[in-house]
Design goal:
Keywords: Acyltransferase, Hydrolase, Membrane, Transferase, Transmembrane, Transmembrane helix. The chain has three domains: 365 residues, no CATH class; 252 residues, SGNH hydrolase (Rossmann fold); 160 residues, Sandwich (Jelly Rolls), CATH 2.60.120. The protein is built from 27 helices and 25 strands. 46% of the residues are buried.
């Protein structure tokens, strides 16, 4: 974040200010909307390179002229960094007192102390339970100051190293040694990031590579190529390549990638390349970067970097996700604040000629002591600050905080990342039972947030249960760690080993998990493992109930009703609404898997959703802790709502019966086909599909993308047709679960004639609608409450090379006049499908 400005040196480089403008705008736009510049966070790496180049240049120039002073260096750093930083922190504390809730204001106060001491990266690494890119991190006002911590820690050591080296010069061997150290930094980041991503992101050893790269560039230019002007064509090519490296990083690197590490090398080389070309004669790219508007943004880049994040953080703290209008308003505010900071704080105060002692006292010591005093007062009031004077407000906040806490804060919810033996016998984990009950509720955090709900049902139905939840670990008996994140894989396997040991103690099992996450990440292998677990439990004589997934909201702020005490205009009930379709598809796959094996399936989404929209409200009250989980009171509120639902109580009555596993639904086995099948179409591996699952003897096809059709196709190729040389016609018969919310399409296509037959299946009315030339076939349909059977005979003209059978799970929908649209989403369950060939 450091720079050399016009008037401070004759070596001023406007193209570097332009490069700084590119860096800061990339960061700002990324933080406004991550989709605008997916890799915008790499702007920080450009800043580090620039800082390493310029500061090393200042130090080595002073050393060469025999006037370098450590005291003077830190005096310049204080004048450059501290005034604008202190102004930001003080304004942020005032805004935090007005806007933030007590716990958050306490965190802000503590982060202020660490930030003014250049230790923000340590604070956020060890005290914030979120990643830099996590949703919750977007409302932490001073999170971005970790970069200043990294820089200032580097400049505690680097000037001392350069001063100790003195005027001996920097041979190519020395530069090679520094390059090896920089490379080691990238290697260390690559090694650390998989297991400790935030350590790699926040800490100096993994960030020193970029700072050293800038320093090496300066040394190379000054000591080896001072007067070397590269040929123009070479300069232009090198500049374009450098710009391409930066642009490629901005576009193709995403927040979920392993970063920093090797992925940080291209942007580092790109920044070094542009700076080097500017030192070796320049290029069109350097001249473009010297364009006055770019230079102007570069000049205010430090203030813009300081102010952009708190403006966005406070806006998101109050409003949640920002629409385009709010994003533009935030951009205008941050620009105005940056200009004021630059003109009223940065520029005037950096020109002072005061002594080091006075600068240290006035610019650093006094503001730091003041900030410490303010933060001490905040802590003494429990984070309330001046709001502590309003006793009614304090009481309301305390009560509402208790109710909006996570489900794990309830004393009866037993959830850990790693189970211990005592949790398997702990009385608090035993609900509605004085002795060990016959029911075990087991799963991940999604099981934990249902404990309050099942607790209410258990009270109404008269049974007891023990609950065990293993965070990020699904209820899978065989190698569950493969479905947990890398960080928790071992603890997942170890914890499930403990669960496996106590299973003989229970007759009934309730399973719940974040099925959506596991299906998205692992697909069919997870469904297979879930089915195997359910089957193993049933084979062991247990009854099994599987609870479906609640909708994942687009956003959730459990403290919004508390914030609304001060800001009544907040529309808490309207936040985070989501279409129900996606979770319906996930739960349909889980339900099919469970019921096809004889387990009971249950979900509570009718109580969380109104028609096709889910808002996370129960009895009109926000009941989510985050986007994925119910809060403590929300879980209980859901239980209070469903405990009088006769259908749910009947499900539990059947589940708890002593008659052993539940019978399989009558329609679950594949219905008998009326054709004499020559070719079965029930092997999922024979289908080409983007979203296909096997569940028992059934196949489920899914279309979960509104932007396109997701089709599935089964090809009877020439080799297969050759095994039926006398076939002159064929009959396709397919039995589907009767679709209700969307209409699938079945198509038969012949090659090379191009002849095709299409049928739109309307499960709502029980009709099959022929499309294209399908009316010329002697197609037949039969309908039951559960199934639809479609029989399609068709001719095989001489020379037919292949028969393609295609399915679109969601081609149309009720109320759409049978018009096809890729925007529909849904699933299609195939219970039986076969092809019969005829010689006549």
């Amino acid at each position: 974040m450091s720079d050399t400005h016009p008037g401070t040196t004759s070596n001023y480089r406007p193209d570097i200010d332009g490069l700084r403008a590119l860096a800061v705008m990339a960061v700002v736009l990324f933080h406004i909307d991550k989709t605008w510049v997916p890799g915008g966070f790499i702007g920080v790496d450009i800043f580090f390179v620039i800082s390493g180049f310029l500061i090393t240049g200042n130090i080595t120039s002073d050393i060469g002229q025999g006037r370098f002073s450590i005291a003077e260096f830190y005096q310049r750093r204080i004048k450059r960094i501290i005034p604008a930083l202190v102004a930001l922190i003080l304004v942020t504390l005032v805004a935090g007192q007005i806007i933030m809730l007590p716990a958050d204001f306490k965190d802000l106060s503590l982060s202020s102390v660490f930030s003014v001491l250049s230790l923000a990266n340590f604070y956020f690494l060890f005290s914030v339970d979120t990643g830099y890119f996590a949703d919750d991190s977007t409302t932490i006002p001073l999170l971005h100051l970790w970069t200043l911590g990294v820089e200032e820690q580097f400049y505690l050591l680097w000037p001392l190293i350069l001063a100790a080296w003195g005027t001996r010069g920097y041979s190519r061997l020395v530069l090679a040694g520094l390059a090896m150290v920089a490379l080691a930094s990238f290697l260390l980041a690559q090694f650390v990031a998989p297991s400790a991503p935030m350590t790699a992101y926040y800490m100096l050893p993994m960030r020193a590579g970029q700072l050293l790269a800038g320093a090496i560039c300066l040394m190379a230019v000054r000591h080896h190529y001072r007067d070397a002007r590269l040929p123009r064509l070479l300069r232009e090519m090198l500049a374009l390549l450098s710009l391409a490296l930066i642009a490629g990083s901005l576009v193709f690197i995403h927040e979920g990638d392993l970063f920093p590490g090797f992925l940080a090398i291209p942007v580092t080389l790109g920044a070094v390349g542009l700076i080097y070309v500017g030192s070796a004669g320049g290029s069109l790219v350097n001249r473009a970067l010297s364009f006055r508007p770019f230079v102007w943004i570069g000049l205010i880049s430090y203030s813009l970097y300081l102010w952009h994040w708190p403006v966005l953080a406070f806006a998101r703290y109050l409003a949640g996700d920002l629409d385009l209008q709010l994003k533009l308003i935030c951009f205008a505010i941050m620009m105005a604040a940056s200009i004021l900071s630059y003109r009223l704080v940065e520029q005037p105060l950096r020109r002072t000629k005061a002594s080091l002692a006075r600068i240290f006292t006035v610019y650093f010591a006094v503001p730091t002591v003041f900030i410490l005093a303010v933060c001490g007062a905040v802590f003494s009031t429990g984070g309330f600050g001046v709001w502590r004077l309003d006793s009614s407000y304090v009481a309301q906040v305390d009560q509402m905080f208790r109710e909006s806490g996570s489900s794990t804060s309830a004393p009866y919810v037993c959830q850990r990342f790693m189970l211990r033996d005592d949790m398997l016998t702990r009385p608090a984990c035993r609900i509605n039972a004085s002795e060990e009950p016959p029911v075990l509720m087991w799963g991940d955090s999604n099981s934990g947030h249902y404990v309050g709900t099942v607790r209410e049902i258990a009270d109404a139905a008269g049974f007891g249960f023990r609950n065990i939840s293993i965070s990020s670990c699904p209820p899978i008996l065989d190698a569950p760690g493969q479905y947990a994140s890398v960080r928790f894989s071992d603890s997942c396997d170890t914890s499930v080993d403990l669960v496996r040991n106590i299973l003989p103690n229970y007759d009934h099992m309730i399973l719940a998990a974040n099925w959506e996450n596991h299906l998205t990440r692992h697909g069919q292998p997870f469904i297979t493992s879930l089915g195997a677990t359910i089957q193993a439990l049933i084979d062991d004589g247990k009854t099994v109930m599987v609870i479906g997934r609640i909708p994942q909201l687009t956003q959730a702020d459990p403290t919004c009703p508390i914030k609304a005490l001060r800001f009544p205009f907040l529309q808490c009930a309207e936040r985070g609404s989501v279409d129900r379709t996606a979770i319906m598809e996930v739960n349909r796959i889980v339900r099919l898997t469970a019921e096809s094996l004889g387990a009971t399936y249950l979900d509570f989404n009718d109580y969380l959703c109104d028609g096709t929209t889910c808002q996370g409200l129960i009895d009109g009250q926000p009941s989510y802790y985050d986007r994925d989980h119910l809060n403590w009171r929300g879980s209980e509120r859901l239980g209070e709502a469903v405990r009088t639902d006769a259908s749910i109580l009947a499900l539990f009555e059947t589940f708890l019966s002593a008659d052993g596993p539940l019978p399989i639904r009558e329609n679950t086995p594949s219905p008998a086909l009326t054709v004499n099948p020559d070719l079965s179409l029930m092997d999922p591996s024979d289908w080409r599909a983007t979203a296909l699952y096997r569940s028992g003897s059934n196949i489920l096809l899914s279309d979960d993308r509104a932007a396109s059709y997701q089709t599935a196709s089964f090809e009877v190729d020439a080799a297969t047709l050759a095994t039926y040389p006398d076939a002159r016609s064929a009959t396709l018969e397919i039995v589907l679960d009767r679709p209700r919310s969307v209409f699938p399409m079945v198509r038969v296509r012949l090659d090379p004639t191009g002849e095709r037959f299409e049928f739109l299946v309307d499960g709502e009315t029980g009709r099959t609608l022929p499309r294209r030339d399908a009316g010329e076939t002697d197609w037949r349909e039969s309908v039951t409450d559960e199934n639809m059977r479609l029989t399609i005979p068709f001719d095989l003209p001489a020379g037919t090379r292949s028969v393609m059978i295609e399915l679109i799970p969601a081609a149309s929908a009720p109320g759409q006049d049978y018009e096809y649209s890729r925007a529909h989403t849904g699933s299609l369950i195939i219970r039986a499908a076969a092809l019969e060939f005829h010689e006549e």
